[in-house]
UniProtKB/TrEMBL annotation:
This is Pantoate--beta-alanine ligase. One of its GO terms (cellular component) is cytosol. Pathway: Cofactor biosynthesis; (R)-pantothenate biosynthesis; (R)-pantothenate from (R)-pantoate and beta-alanine: step 1/1. It comes from Tetradesmus obliquus (Green alga). It comes from the Eukaryota. Belongs to the pantothenate synthetase family. One of its GO terms (biological process) is pantothenate biosynthetic process.
Length: 316
């Protein structure tokens, strides 16, 4: 019988201990790379760990389902979790430590009671969380429309994690393209001494972008969700061959193909791949084609999938 693997990687849950761990590495002359995640790891996450290893001596990953980036009606409660398997995967991938600040990242407010433990100022609670990081323009549009609190939650928690882990390098996936551009801008604007690396999207063999949320798709939705990557591949070819270059026409066609497969489209947008400004002609610059759509879940409700492709050359 195969031996059960043991978790030997340090699992750090306290902020002070995490900071002390990183500072110890630095005192020993080592550089630290950081990969923040929400867990339920797949090959996409592990590709970030691989990249992190090539940019620093020591890699720290975090697993934290950040309550402040979910609205009340979103999937915080049903977000898939598998911490034991995650720890073993991070260990096998060569991480030096896992930071799991469950319940300890935000000041605890007694009686918050909704599982998030984060009470904002709007609650009127005297001990609420008041300080937020907002990246003013880049948080608008795309995912910022249907998820108005999302990027404020992301920028704030990433700032907190950066202050706790104190990395030299942090690695993000281009799967969350708007997030990658926003963190890159935040680091520039606020002078964080951290290099941000963006890594390409890892896909399943059939083209579906890997995501922890794919586990919640019904078999039928899993098949229908392929319409996203297939429609984007059509757009990429259409632009490369100059069959279609109008952003509005490409967006309409991609939207139609996903809707025909049973998806409910949140947005299909073409943006300048570097600064995310709106564009009219997809062939005039490196253009991001970004999609978000809901498909029925296998349990209850829907699963919101995001994906993107760059038509032309990526920004550095
Ligand atoms: P998450 O756990 O979904 O918050 O993702 C943690 C990090 O992994 C983020 O930087 C994501 O962009 C990245 N990531 C998620 N899925 C993929 C993927 N399919 N390919 C590459 N990176 C990914």
């Amino acid at each position: 019988m195969a031996e059960q693997q043991q978790v030997t990687i340090p699992v750090i849950t306290k902020k002070d201990e995490m900071r002390a761990f990183s500072r110890k590495q630095k005192l020993a002359g080592k550089t630290v790379a950081f990969v923040p995640t929400m867990g339920y790891l797949h090959e996409g996450h592990l590709s970030l760990i691989e990249a992190a290893k090539s940019h620093a001596d020591v890699v720290v990953a975090s697993i934290y389902v950040n309550p402040t980036q979910f609205s009340a009606n979103e999937d915080f409660d049903v977000y898939p979790r598998n911490p034991d398997s995650d720890r073993l995967q991070l260990q096998a991938a060569g991480c030096a430590a896992v930071f799991e600040p469950e319940g300890s990242l935000y000041h605890q407010v007694p009686g918050a009671g909704d599982g998030s433990n984060v009470v904002g100022r709007e609650s009127g609670h005297p001990d609420s969380h008041e300080t937020w990081v907002t990246v003013e323009r880049l948080q608008q549009g795309l995912c910022g429309v249907s998820r108005p609190h999302f990027f404020r939650g992301v920028a704030t928690v990433v700032t907190k994690l950066f202050h706790i882990v104190e990395p030299d390098v942090a690695v993000f996936g281009q799967k969350d393209y708007q997030q990658w551009r926003l963190i890159t801008r935040m680091v520039r604007d606020l002078d964080f001494p951290i290099s941000i690396i963006g890594m390409p999207i890892c896909r399943e063999n059939d083209g579906l972008a890997m995501s922890s949320r794919n586990a919640r798709l019904s078999p039928e939705s899993r098949a229908n969700a392929l319409s996203i990557s297939q429609a984007m591949a059509w757009a990429q070819q259409a632009v490369a061959q100059r069959q279609a270059t109008s952003a509005a026409a490409i967006a309409a066609e991609v939207r139609q193909r996903i809707t025909a497969a049973g998806g409910e489209v949140d947005y299909v947008q073409l943006r300048d791949a570097d600064n995310l400004h709106e564009v009219a002609d997809a062939a005039a610059q490196a253009t991001l084609l970004a999609v978000a759509a809901w498909f029925p879940a296998k349990d209850r409700g829907t699963v919101r999938l995001i994906d993107n492709m760059v038509l032309g050359q990526l920004p550095s």
